[in-house]
Amino acid sequence: MIRAVFSSLAFVLLAALPLRAEVDIQEVTSPGGIHAWLVESHEVPFVSLEIRFQGGASLDAPGKRGAINLMTGLLEEGAGEMDARAFARERDALAASYRFDVGADSLAVSAQMLTENRDEAVGLLRQALVAPRFDEEAIERVRAQVISGIRSDATDPNAIAGETFDRMVFGDHPYATAISGTEDSVNALTRDDLIAARDRVIARDRLFVAAAGDISAEDLGKLLDTLLGDLPETGAPMPGPAPLNLEGGVTVVPFDTPQSVATFGQRGLDRDDPDFFAAFVMNQILGGGGFGARLMEEVRVKRGLTYGVYSYLMPMDHAALIMGGVASGNDKIAEAVEVIRAEWARMAEAGATQEELDKVKTYLTGAYPLRFDGNAPIARILVGMQMEGLTPDYVKTRNDRIRAVTLDDVRRLAAELLDPAHLQFVVVGQPQGLRTTN
Q: How far is Cα 78 from Cα 132, in angstroms, rounded to an integer?
């Protein structure tokens, strides 16, 4: 639904950026008081800019679910005096790229631009943020795309499992419903609803910015005021904490398919919890490390029950979970669920081995520098760090924090956190022999 247009020249420049062994982060404050982080690099005349507005789709007004998602899809569909086609022509003529996307906790704006066209590209992006047109023709076209996606999700077992899990776990919190809304809620949205949705989320009091590439701190400060200085000061209040209704057990959603899909999860840790790194390392051993993880070894390699199984930490702004997923034949999913629950319990009872811990530390510390492989990834990492409340020195201390996790840390954390009795499964399909609690 939301397009990202890359010119061939811009793509080549982005791909050609060298891997950086050192990342020197500057903290920049514009004359107008807008804060940003910058990694300055003048090897290629190209700049990547990442903007986040905290709150995202969770700020939908009551009864207007899907408004922020639909509004986000329209930000590049005309602005100021330009309709959608004129905006696209101008963007392409500048060899600029803009991407607008929204999630449960943030609205993201990603931009890449050539140095020689930077002022014009920033001006065009500013128009999209402060003066989107929301033309009726564009609204109906993007609305149709959103509804098509909603209908597609209604026949996708993975989407059904995720949405069912969210409804069960999050009660009446915005997390409980899909950010795209329902057919009825999206069809009911008006142009005025979209203007109100923009004002709820695109505001300076929830703004995070990062840049990487061919720009100085002084020039970035000027750019920030030009691009973002005219935004409203405040948006809608953030929602409160989400409930976590995790009683454990298995819920089955009947669906005519030869393969069942399962989503599972339990309570997790906030990103700022002192034990977060121990949890991160523990999960890598349990289910986050691909073929090196226990779940993959036990469920796929030893028993051939699936092509893939995984777990991951999901610390959101208003709730924290440990989540996972697996797909298996209808005649095998019951065994897969039992093996996952057994591995959850085994990790809780005995923790990890020293060999497992050493292997995971080597992988995690070795892979981390590879993330900084160009201006766009660097800018994304920097803005994510800001939103997580990290400091600029995190890129230098992160691997030391991984190395500092001990075997006792992992064993203690696993015993305290992992809770097989409250591990909730949602299975979509026609599972055979699976004991349910619904």
A: 6
DSSP-assigned states of every residue in 107-156? EEEEEEEEGGGHHHHHHHHHHHHH-B---HHHHHHHHHHHHHHHHHHTT-
| Closest of 328, 346, 367, 351 to residue 405, by C-alpha | 351
**Would you report the helix, strand and coil content of the chain in percent, each value rounded to 5?**
50, 20, 35
User: Given the DSSP bridges, would you call strands 259-267 and 320-329 parallel, antiparallel or unpaired?
Assistant: antiparallel
In percent, the amount of the chain with pLDDT more than 90 equals: 92
Q: Phi, psi at residue 224, to the nearest 5°?
A: -60, -45
- Number of helices (H), then strands (E), belonging to the chain: the values are 16, 11
Q: Model-level pTM?
A: 0.92
Distance CA 342, CA 124 (A): 55
Distance CA 282, CA 262 (A): 22
DSSP labels, 213-264: ES--HHHHHHHHHHHHTTS-S--PPPP-PPP-----EEEEEE---SEEEEEE
Task: Decide if 269 contacts 417 (C-beta within 8 A).
Answer: yes
Per-residue pLDDT of 193-236, as tens digits, reads: 999 999 999 999 999 999 999 999 999 999 999 999 999 999 99
pLDDT in tens, 289-344: 888 999 999 999 999 999 999 999 999 999 999 999 999 999 999 999 999 999 99
Q: How far apart are CA 100 and CA 107, in angstroms?
A: 7
pLDDT 10s digits, 369-390: 988 989 999 999 999 999 999 9
Residue 340: CB atoms within 10 Å: 27
Closest among 388, 365, 327, 18 to 156, alpha carbons compared: 327
Measuring CA to CA, which residue among 204, 86, 78 is closest to residue 138?
78
Encode pLDDT of 121-163 as tens digits. Answer: 999 999 999 999 999 999 999 999 999 999 999 999 999 999 9
Q: Does the pLDDT at position 351 exceed 80?
A: yes
Of 259, 307, 248, 318, the closest CA to residue 58 belongs to: 318
CA terminus-to-terminus distance, the chain: 35
pLDDT at 266: 98
Closest by Cα among 147, 37, 103 to 383: 37
